[in-house]
Structure formats: structure tokens, C-alpha cells
Design goal:
This protein is 45% helix and 23% strand. Strands 1, 2, 3, 4, 5, 6, 7, 8 and 9 form a nine-stranded antiparallel β-sheet that branches. Helix 4 packs across helix 6 and helix 7 packs across helix 9.
Length: 271
């Protein structure tokens, strides 16, 4: 980009995940944000370096590690680099379906969390958001981030799966089995089964040993294997079983099977 310093880089996109207005990744070597506000919540992790910022006229600092920054909507803040190497950051801009406006005051009082679990969950969500087609996984990971943020700001206690866990898990599995190709959002599944999203995921994992997004991916891989051995091309198979595109199929297929769909198809043809 013209005018940028050589070591400055940014990427930004709007994912098709309810609650996330924008994803923003940046490396700044020498940058100062003027005072400004956002309409959304700004959830940020630092991968490297340190930042100094003011929120509602109080200064704060954070460095790479387990620190998580949460800047609330409508509250003025700025930001600047504090080391010669600058900083690398990843931001999620979240709407009020993730965090309600009533929590703004508590976020102003303590905008930096030292929380390894929350940091890890945010990192995992960013990894899922990089790949088109992993929306169900991203939505699931966002639901646990939301729960953890509420833990810091509102102190709710997540409910452990009880006697209803096996029933809810079985109902969700039946729902996923019926929607392998078109898929289903976590929000829709929770509404159909009248369960909170994170509670639904916990029930499923307790019963079957893996999260529902991983189960759905496994079902699609099984169908893909059968179609490939029947002689169908990988590009056809990808869309037939519900993957976003051939690259999406390749990534998950290789992770599950240990080889690419094309090689798997050739191996079956030569058998």
C-alpha cells in the first residue's frame, strides 16, 4: 500500500460468522492511533511487541503473551507503539449479540485480562476464521469466548452437563446427520434444540468425545472417501459433501487421511 512503511502489513475481512463484524490483523512498526471510538467491541491479542493506550482518559499497557485487550464500543481510546520493533496484533470486532452494552462500564474499568485460556480460545478462533468454510467451528469457538468474557465482566457460572446430556447430544447428532451437505449454524441448532450453544457443545463432547464441528467434518470426510473411490473428481466431491471448495476439502482430508483427495483417488483406481 502506497505510503506504508516497509514493515507495516495489514489484512482485514468480514467473515460470515454471526457476531463478528470484522477481522483485522496488523503488524505496525511505528504507528499511533488518534483518539477515536468504535460502534463495536474490539477484542485484541498481541502476538509480539507491546502497546500503550488510553481508554476513557486512563492509560494502560499490554505486551505479547497471555494478555487480552477488550475495548468497549462508544468509549474514546488511542494506541501507540512503544518499542522499535513495533507490535503484531489480531483484532475481532464484535457486535452487541456477543456482549451487551450494559457491560461497557466494567470493560472500561479493566480492559486488559491476563487469561491464558481466553487467549488460547481467541487464537484458535482466528485460525478457524482464516479458512473459508469453517464457519461452524468458528461459531462454536466464539460461543466459548463469549462465555469467558462474561465470566470476567459479569461472573456467570457455566452449567455443567447433567442427566440431559446424552439426550441433547443424540438430538444434535441426528440433526447434524440430516444436514451433512448443507450444514447448520450453531445458533440454528441451539434454537431447534432449545439449548444454550456452549451447553450444547459440552453435552456433545461429553457424550461422543469430540466437538460437534469435528463430528460434522468427519462425516463429510467419510462421504468424500466413498465418492473418490467411485471415481468422482475432488472438485466435484468437495461441493457434493458440503465443503466450501476443493482447497477446503484438501486441508481437512489430508489432516484426517494423511494424503490428498487426488492421491487417494489414484490409489483406489490402481487397486
Amino acid at each position: 500500500m502506497a505510503g506504508d512503511r516497509p514493515r507495516t502489513s495489514i489484512s482485514a475481512w468480514r467473515p460470515s460468522v454471526p457476531g463478528i463484524a470484522e477481522v483485522f490483523h496488523a503488524h505496525f512498526t511505528d504507528h499511533a492511533y488518534p483518539a477515536h471510538t468504535h460502534d463495536t467491541w474490539d477484542l485484541m491479542i498481541l502476538d509480539d511487541g507491546a502497546v500503550d493506550f488510553a481508554l476513557d482518559r486512563r492509560r494502560h499497557g499490554a505486551a505479547g503473551g497471555a494478555a487480552v485487550l477488550l475495548l468497549p464500543p462508544g468509549v474514546p481510546h488511542d494506541g501507540r507503539t512503544v518499542t522499535a520493533s513495533g507490535f503484531r496484533k489480531r483484532n475481532l470486532y464484535l457486535d452487541d449479540s456477543v456482549l451487551p452494552h450494559r457491560l461497557v462500564g466494567r470493560a472500561v474499568d479493566a480492559p486488559v485480562f491476563s487469561d491464558g485460556l481466553l487467549h488460547r480460545r481467541i487464537d484458535q478462533l482466528h485460525a478457524a476464521l482464516v479458512h473459508a468454510g469453517d464457519g461452524f467451528e468458528a461459531e462454536s469457538r466464539l460461543s466459548f469466548i463469549r462465555e469467558r468474557l462474561h465470566f470476567h465482566l459479569d461472573a456467570p457460572q457455566p452449567r455443567a452437563p447433567g442427566r440431559e446430556a446424552n439426550r441433547l447430544a443424540a438430538e444434535l447428532r441426528d440433526l447434524l446427520d440430516s444436514r451433512v451437505h448443507p450444514g447448520i449454524s450453531l445458533r440454528e441448532a441451539a434454537a431447534v434444540l432449545h439449548a444454550h450453544p456452549t451447553h450444547l457443545i459440552r453435552c456433545f463432547k461429553q457424550t461422543y468425545g469430540l466437538p460437534p464441528h469435528a463430528y460434522l467434518t468427519g462425516k463429510r470426510i467419510d462421504q468424500a472417501r466413498r465418492l473418490l473411490l467411485d471415481g468422482h473428481r475432488p472438485a466435484e466431491v468437495a461441493t457434493a459433501v458440503g465443503f466450501h471448495d476443493q482447497a477446503h476439502l484438501n486441508r481437512h482430508f489430508t489432516r484426517h487421511v494423511g494424503t490428498t483427495p487426488a492421491r487417494y483417488k489414484r490409489a483406489g483406481s490402481s487397486a
